[in-house]
Amino acid sequence: MTQSQTHKIGFIAPLSEPGWQEAGEQLLSGFLLGIKRVNAHDDFSDRQIEVVIRDTAGSPERAEEAVREMKNLGVVALAGEYHSVVARSAARIAHELHLPYLCSSAVIDQLVDQPSDWIARLSPPQSTGWTLFADFLSNQGHSNIAAITTQSAYWSKGVEILRNRLLERGGQLTELPFQESNPTQIIDSLGAIGASSLLLLLGFPEPVTSIVRTVRNNRNFDHVLLGAPAGQPEFAQWHRNLGLFGTGVPFLRYVPTNQSSVAMDAFQELRRLYRREPSFVALEGLDSALVVADLLRGYNYENDKPWASIITNGSRGRINFTFDPHSRMWQWVTAPVQVASLNRLVSPVAQVLLTPSDVA
What we know:
Elements: E1 6-13, H1 21-41, E2 48-55, H2 60-72, E3 77-80, H3 84-97, E4 101-103, E5 119-121, H4 126-139, E6 144-149, H5 153-168, E7 172-177, H6 185-193, E8 197-201, H7 208-216, E9 225-227, H8 236-242, E10 251-253, H9 261-274, H10 280-298, E11 311-314, E12 317-320, E13 322-324, E14 329-331, E15 338-342, E16 350-354
Parallel strand pairs: 1-2, 1-3, 3-4, 4-5, 5-14, 6-7, 6-8, 8-9
Antiparallel strand pairs: 10-15, 11-12, 13-14, 15-16
């Protein structure tokens, strides 16, 4: 490492459209809070951590450019990103450049195409969370399930995970490709299938918002459970767009059942700083900052396994990484995961519906 006055850390997130801007802002706000705390309380031989931020706008190409640029600027590690397809591109370039990259929030299982000791991930793999979501549906008695989808590697993998798990438990999943030219076709399709649950595997705010309103406004489908395993109801924009229509929609979130004092203090400070309700994505950002700080404390820059010895007391538990042969990178294998739903209050509050410990 050069003898500069700062440790440069790169951070990428979707901070403008067509990326999911709210998710990116939440991730960044948590990360900056974590870096602020580290700089205020930790000793890095009189050096501070400097964050180099780049907006991916949900674009894999922009992510690739950003990673190369930040490497040239002297960043010694990289963190961030929310979108899976974007994180895949960032991980590929980081691996090529031997730049340690901590994926903060993207979940697609195959983040890298070859084994890499340079890549680590905080969020649980998609197969972990979406299998739990399928268990939730089965436990609630849903055996005939529909999923309305658009084409992408992320959604296609989600359908595969859900279908396989539901088949194991005696259920079935019917995929309904979204037709932009005829968005109300979902009503006819639901009526023909007779599904008791409809999963929303699409982009937000549109077309998800329109589909939820279409189904909720049709009294023939009052019995149909809407589900959003990708976690859209976690964000304030969901409430602004849908109001009470958006309650009672189960989704995945990555927090423990009992919040730590670190998490509660962080939420309180984030509310004060940004005048908005933080989500678990902000905690993913905070934990990313704490993990990267631990990397800087003990990392030998000649080491080709930078994540192997990390142990961090994060906002959502004790974080350490194990090399996962399935995902071909270093993974926080005990990352918390739960199925939650918003109750019907004026200010919606998330209620936990299922955790892995509840599954027989």
